[in-house]
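Let's sit down with a protein and look at its sequence and fold side by side. Once you have written the record down, we can walk along the chain together.
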Amino acid sequence: MAASRPDCLFCKIVTGEVPAEIVRKGERTVAFRDINPQAPTHILVIPREHYADAGEAARAGAGIVDDIARDSHEVAVAEGIADTGYRLVFNTGAGAGQTIFHVHGHLLGGRGLEWPPG
């Protein structure tokens, strides 16, 4: 784990170097709207520190995955989707569709979500 990586898009969003539509800034996370939304509400919740994926974040033992889940719920409440239901997805690895290698939870809601996904 590194505090940040100069070549990481999401690290640049955290520092404000790259603009994003921020919806929440927490002590350890930042939440912003996805630029290619897959649902009416599609927000990415990321840690301020750089972890490549959910596995690396979990292995670090710092509780960051807990923070992402808790802060995602707070965003869901603020967005008005907590009562109707939402999905929190972590794509881990290129084979699972991860394209930015900075762990991030996809908070999806605002419509019915099919199962299984994809």
User: Anything to note?
Assistant: The first strand starts at residue 22 and ends at 25.
